[in-house]
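User: Show me a protein chain along with its predicted structure.
Assistant: Here is one chain, sequence first, then structure tokens.
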Amino acid sequence: MKRLFIAEKPSLASAIAENLPGQAKKERTHIAVGNDIVTWCVGHILEQAMPEDYEERYKRWTFDDLPIVPQQWKLLPKENCKAQLSAIKSLLQGCDVVVNAGDPDREGQLLVDEVLRFFGNRKPVKRVLINDYNAEKVRRALANIQDNAEQQFKGWYESALARSRFDWLFGLNLSRAYTLRAREIGYDGVLSVGRVQTPTLGLVVARDLAIENFKSAPFYTLTVRLKHAGGEFSANWRAPANQEGLDESGRLTAAAIAQALAAKIGGKLGKITKYEKTLKNEGAPLPFSLSTLQMAANDKYGYSAQAVLDACQALYEKHKLTSYPRTDCNHLSAEHHTDAPNVLAAIVANCADLAQLAAQADLKLKSVAFNDEKVTAHHAIIPTVGRANVSALSDTERNIYDMIVRAWLAQFFPPCQFLQTSIEVSIEGETFAARGKTPVLPGWREIYAPPAAGEAEEDDDDMEDAKQTLPALQHGDDAQCLKCDINNRKTTPPPRFTEKLLLAAMLDIHKHVTDPAAKKRLKEGQGIGTEATRAGIIEELKRRNFLEPKGKQIISTPAGRGLIAALPQHAKDPALTGICEQALDLVELGKLPGVDFINRNVALIERLVSDARTASLDVPVAQAVVCPSCKTGRLRRLKGKNGFFWGCSNYKADPKCSASFPDARGEPNIART
């Protein structure tokens, strides 16, 4: 029996071939191993046809054609994948059984199954699930090949297909609808709408407006200086839940109450009501997923999400120094722990500056990162056994490699140990608290200087507490209040988005949703977008001139704000993704046909397109020049075969106006028709 394995990517194909019985012979498009053949896709090698691929008339954008809903959906070969697709077609003809070796998730199922359906395959199809390229894991998966017709795999395919088609319908129809509406008022550009892209833009717009409309308000904190037999220290007031004068965030906003409290406790004797000194162990941060690496690198170096992805892709494909980057997982399998000596040797060979740290790594230690049950379709990003001249890498690649290596090394260092001191003092019925940290053993923190990027910071009061040395106390001790200071503070607006904060918001999008069911599903599904798409979505919003970078910050443009203001809530609310995912779960379980999911959403899209026809848009437009021919249209500067000219916006209207005028240094020459 001759089997044809179709892997999702070349690296997986190599891992499969290395663990099949027989001598491997690598060809340009496949690997022959004994009686088996292993070939590969390069992600999706087929793509959805565009509207004009269905009908020529769709090249012209008009409201009359919307919404466009294909009756028979088409897939077309990606231009740069045609040779590989042709090779798969040829290999299919010579095999007895096909094995789908896509990633073990919806998208991995779809991208291989769609190729088989594209070629009308009628041969038996099996399924192998590989989420770890470690030899033992791959061999175990190959020994447990299943039938591709099982409900789990049918459900993965149907739900991924339904999601793909919905995104096509939603994005293309609404982009055309809002672009057409914008052109009617003179906007020269495309207003791109997408199920993930638009809510992401909405996050930035909402944040920018909140900052610009923010009105600072005063509030007050109280700090006492206390004298104890063992020494002096400071403590901060903790307001009780029923305290008068607090705002919704628990801040004291009444100056008179602050003054009364200070007068009540100043100079009074207090009692130590709590004194705890506890030895704490703090484990190392987990290895990186793509998103956590992008956030950390943006924080540390200011790199964009796309720059980090590009560097990771080069480290993986070109330099063979790190593992597959487009992963949402922070965990590793037990087999990775077994392979640690080989990885450590490669790190020492590649990075002379890390040799001393690497020598301190204790490979007998096994952090919580090594957990087979928490490995998803891919494991965390880690260094490989590959060796290369690291000095030849670009600065970005070298810095990203260094971050990945340090995160891996941290798994083989002991926990960071510190003494956590917590004190509470009662003065005239009011509670004051102080905290302190005393380092005991640096552990994994030796690897990071300064502390690990992305690590949570303490609030202002706790930061001040951590700086002071607290005396040794006992429960019931006296503490004299030497003075009580009233600290005048002001509320501050939320911070502008950076790419780090925007990625975090996309991951935690459930925090921006009010619908309980949608919120729950979005939290389970790790937000909107995927590890593979989030960087591209942010870059697309920049390219469309909806977002613009200002240093590390990302600011919404007038065009971006105008689009969000015009869109109905359904079109920009991330809850839509949560609701869709709930329905797609039913498709996956076989409880809702994919075609019914699409039909339900076509009705939504029809309504949204109808709303777009009369939407009020506030987008930047060029100075309007009324068409001298029809008197109702506006002239727009267009580029034709022979250069720029000016045409009437009623060119596609009814009645049609075909007036056009030559361009004269950026203005229409109305004197010459």
